[in-house]
Amino acid sequence: MWIGGGGKVLFPPCAAIASAVPILQKDKAVAGAYVIELDNLAYSYGGGELLSDISLRLTPGSFHFLTGPSGAGKTTFLKLCYGALVPTAGHAVLFGKDVRQMDRDEIAEIRRRVGVVHQDCQFLDHLSVAENIALPLMVSGRDVSAEDQNLKELIAWCGLTHRAEARPPELSGGERQRAALARAVIMSPDIILADEPTGNVDWEMSERLLSLLVELNRMGKTVMIATHDLGLIRAAKTRVQARVLRIAKRRLQLAGADL
Amino acid sequence: MKLLSPAVLLRGEPQADRVVPPTGFTARLTLFAAAAMTFLAVFALALSLATGRLASNWSEELARSSTLRISAPAEQVAAQTEAALQVLATTGGVARARALSREEQQALLEPWFGPDLPVDSLPIPQLIEIIEDAQGYDPDGLRLRLAAEVPGAVLDDHGRWRRPLVKAAGRIRALGLLSLLLIGGVMGAMITLAANSALAANGQVIAVLRLVGARDDFIARAFVRRFTFRAFWGAALGMFLGLAALLALPEAQAEGGFLTGLGLRGWHWIWPFFLPLVAAMVSFLATGAAARRMLRRLA
Ligand SMILES: Nc1ncnc2c1ncn2[C@@H]1O[C@H](COP(=O)(O)OP(=O)(O)O)[C@@H](O)[C@H]1O
Ligand SMILES: [Mg+2]
């Protein structure tokens, strides 16, 4: 395998981290069958409804694509899935708890269980790439040093070892996306939401990112990728059993076999 | 949101401190505000302490007594003393009145005339010590009564002119304390402004921190700690400059009186050292409130 050059899957770090966080495991036990449950959900930014009547259940370990034309509401949909937005109607239940009943600390807790690769991967430019990747650990109050073996392995896994001490603005588009992915998975989240992860990277880099996401899925993580890149979806379908959802006319549809 | 505890503040969280980017402008503003305000506070403090000291010295002297001097031909002294004591006993505002003994009078004169002064053979006036009660007596009324009944009596209430001075000193002291409060308030306001502008300038940073699961109190702590330490070091700097300026004041001299007595004396030198702690506390409370408000607004 190409990752890290060592020919082995370098991902036990996250498993190790997970076992060090009993809270996550306890919650897993009571969370029920679905990671995310959307029930007749609707959302509007204040004007007309952008999303209407959406119901969806994500089972642990599933792999989803979310497509739709630009402006259809893919980013909005993902934000509803990690508690950044609260539905204007219906329910969004994350890990068994309705978003509407969560306070801000609980939302923060959810963010640690959902790895988000933001569309415009935001980093803290005054910190190194390694520190940015370790940021979720830092904000949860854990001591991390750049010498941490798990962190090093994770950085190697996404191929950023030689860039670990760089500042984020020095990274290329593909490197930024991989750094964002590494940051999204460092807390060993149950689900990874990636918003246009291949938005501005070349095909080879898209392939590489996809491989990382497929690998995470094989480790049992739920994955949802918002993209309008049909080539990426076709490439994924040869490696993983993926469902393709499409937002069209405010509704969520299951896209068919045309892909 | 949980209150930040000073213990957590002092222990420090290197991780949290790292995530907030260094902000040049607000850092300098906080440092400067704390230093300048503490510099001023040192003087307000010195003024309060010095006037407090003067007021208490003077009022002690006031409380001590006034004296009645009886200068009369030797054979009348005893009778007039008796009469004066009678008058004083019936004067409102006089707590006690007592004729000084020969020995006491001799002791009073000794510094001037030496121990061998033959008091008995000299026409030394008899002194009567008057101790006032809390209200004090009316000196003019007493003078009138004495003039009628004890022709040789002279009331010396030289201490009385100090009463308005004591009052003035008390006022100045209150003004000094008020200045301290105002200085603290202005410092709090300036540090709040600096913290607000730092928080506003770091909206993006806060968004990223929230994205990766930072709780509000973690973010607030990072800002509050930074501003608190800045205020502390700024105040420490201002305090040392203020103390240096006080040390450079001329020594207190009898002729200079009030003006040269403005410096700090004895254990009063301790007080300025509390100013940096107070500045840190003010900053801690001000930025804590600002951060909570700002984080709610950015939610
Ligand atoms: N914060 C916002 N306030 C108001 N309108 C928004 C906001 N964010 C997105 N929108 C609008 O919602 C629509 C869907 O946006 P988005 O979810 O980003 O779509 P997509 O990711 O599919 O391109 C767009 O028309 C966009 O202009
Ligand atoms: Mg989008």
Describe this structure in words.
The complex is a heterodimer of chains A (259) and B (299). Chain A is an alpha/beta fold and 259 residues long. Chain A has one domain: P-loop containing nucleotide triphosphate hydrolases (Rossmann fold), CATH 3.40.50. In chain A, strands 6-7-8-3-9-10 form a six-stranded mixed β-sheet, sandwiched between helices. In chain A, strands 2-1-4-5 form a four-stranded antiparallel β-sheet, with helices on one face. Chain A is globular, with a radius of gyration of 18 Å. Chain B has 299 residues and is an alpha+beta fold. Chain B is built from ten helices and four strands, in the order H-H-H-E-H-E-H-E-H-E-H-H-H-H. In chain B, strands 2-3-1-4 form a four-stranded antiparallel β-sheet. In chain B, helix 3 packs across helix 9, helix 7 runs antiparallel to helix 9 and helix 9 packs antiparallel against helix 10. The two termini of chain B are 13 Å apart. The interface between A and B is medium-sized, with 28 and 22 residues. The structure holds adenosine-5'-diphosphate and magnesium ion.
Quick structural overview:
The complex is a heterodimer of chains A (259) and B (299). Chain A contains 10 helices and 10 strands.
